[in-house]
Amino acid sequence: MSLEPFELDIGRAKLVGVEMGEGLAVVFLHAGVCDKRMWSEQMQAVADAGWHAVAYDRRGYGETVSEDEAFNHVDDLEAVLDALGIHAAVFVGCSMGGGLAVDFALRDPGRIIGLVLIGTSVTGSPWTATDVERMIEAAEEDAYERHDWEMLNRVQAHEWLDGPRVQSGRVGGAARELFLDMNALALSKPVLTQEEERPDAWRRVAEVNAPTLLLVGDEDFTALIERHEHLSEEMPNAFAAVLEGVAHIPSIERPELVNSMLLEFLDAIGGEGNDEEDEEE
Q1: Does residue 88 sit in the same domain as residue 199?
Q2: Residue pair 195/66 in contact by the 8 Å Cβ criterion
């Protein structure tokens, strides 16, 4: 089973994605320092388990190309689902991808079978930082102001792949090469200045009733660990777990761990019946 590419024209953008497998849909939404490739291992795992895996590059990332026009990522996500004939799905989002999943769940809860949120963003949520974390944030800001995209990529690899409180280079090999390539591509894209502001979701997270798996790495930013704890208390059908020894992008750092937890969650919300449903159809 191999990934099948697709392209969708939405407004003046060409969104590029991949899909694999058959059954109920699992839609993967990438982090803001990655693209759809961060989910390759997970897509293979869920497709092999009888699900329809889908991932795409949002505007400003990966292979997607877009002119600078007014847009909203939630509208784009809805358009992708409609184009692929997906009425409802499980949404797996990391960081900004998780924030998008939450916003979509609040706007259209009937299309949500379940959520998996990893180190998730939430529109309107607060941000705090330790002194060490502020130092690396300052290095990031300095590289950005100097337009030193190579340095910015390295700093962001330290922040998000290694973790802000540990030694830079903690994660090496193929995972680091992939991160640097994905983020370099995003940093090279033209700036999109007309993204529409999305409404505050932070005060409404208790309204998200879908079964939800919340994951965060213990080496992630302190604010994201605190947010994880808040969501685990506020979201009525959430199960929360802290992943030891990983930071913000566990899908490429520890794919086997993420795969096992994702598949267990999918089984719990109905994955075991997918093959039987397909045979009946």
Answers
A1: yes
A2: no
- Residue 141, pLDDT > 50, answer yes
Structural domain boundaries enclosing 48: 4-124+189-280
Q: Answer yes or no: do 198 and 183 share one domain.
A: no
- Residue 136: is its pLDDT beyond 70? yes
Going 193 to 194 to 200 to 204, the CA torsion angle's sign is negative
CA neighbours closer than 13 Å in the CB half-sphere of residue 253? 23
What are the tens digits of pLDDT across the range 23-69? 999 999 999 999 999 999 999 999 999 999 999 999 999 999 999 99
In angstroms, the CA 75 to CA 108 distance is 11
Read off the pTM.
0.95
Joined tokens for residue 1? 């089973």
Same domain, 183 and 199: no
CATH number, domain with residue 108: 3.40.50.1820
